[in-house]
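TODO from last week: model Thiol peroxidase.
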Amino acid sequence: MADITLKGNACHTNGDLPAVGSSAPDFTLTGADLADVNLATFAGKKKLLNIVPSLDTPTCATSTQKFNTSMASKSDAVALVISADLVFAQKRFCGAEGIDNVISLSTMRSKGFAEDYGVLITDGPLAGLCGRAVVVLDEENKVLYTQLVGEIADEPDYDAAMAALG
């Protein structure tokens, strides 16, 4: 369990992020076309997982926009923004914001993504959603970098995440 805060108020996640050097847990998330998506969908690519509570919050929107800009020149990698939002809301957000270098994925049918990645918020007003985190994987799904953002309202360390992605 990790201690995090929401605007200074304590809350917790169910566990810890996957360890650097370990193999990332596989997942099944829902893509924009309602199809199941897993790590194999992005085989041969480095992956940046931008895990957020909801795209309908200012910090989540900002992080998605910033990673979208950073990913414009990355042909060997993919950025995934993962939230509990329905795919319809994700598509509306990405369309309105011109997000075309980040792929949005929903936990709406997931059977354990948040738990397996240790980001499930277990208490407080956002219980049941994902905490804010970034996980970078290599082409073989080995964990290269992780950051659980201690204050949910804060942005992640973009420079460190992009440096880990290479």
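Done. The chain has four helices and nine strands.
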